[in-house]
Amino acid sequence: MSLALKLALSPLLVAQAVLTRRRLPVLAEPAGPRQGVAGPAKALPLRVLITGDSSAAGVGVVHQREALAVQLAQQLALACPARVQWRLLAKSGLNTAQTLHLLQREGAGLQADVAVVVTGVNDVVEQVPSHRAVSAREALANALRNAHGVQHVVFAPLPPIHHFPGLPQPLRWVAGSDARRHNAALQRWVRQRGDVSLVDMETPLNAGVMAADGFHPGEPVYRYCATVMAQHVAARVWPQLHLHPHPHPHPHLPST
Fold first, then answer.
1. Is residue 7 part of a domain?
2. pTM for the complete prediction?
3. Is residue 163 situated within a structural domain?
């Protein structure tokens, strides 16, 4: 989209954004454990961290078993196969830079082999330039690798915001255009590093598969994303990992 067109529409877009924020219901993060184990006890252990924004946290469903983290752990246990020791560290409303701050505040002692990062929608909402969002992703990937032992960081693409039923036009169209630009910048960046990757998926969205607010995923979307992400990790990441059996770091964790 041209800058001139965006500027011309800006008064309408600002008004629509304010009204939409007031109109949409505020959905709580789902109940349920934010860490656990999935897979057979004798399989090679795979430590997975899921971090990011409301979609990482599971907003849009009632319980974590319907959200991304639990379903991803279960799918990874089958696809790799592995004994997946998973941890969820996410919070609704975070942009990419704020996700790094969350990790710095609450991730002391956390170690993982693979991290799955779900951010970007709030970068678009807050009009963070795509180059700054990429810089924030790079800082996050470096922190995950250097401070938390992560060998590979998997980034989810921004969803097709132009299909969000909870957003009016032309706000939906403009936000979707911004999301595509962010994804293009993210794709260019991941090609420069061997320790990060971008999941190739175009999440099918409509009112029937999304949450009641028309903005967050519903269970079918989380199930789809977990399946595609697990396939990505199994095909592109799992064969490259250097894994060794290690003591179970959380013997009290529930199985999922």
1. no
2. 0.91
3. yes
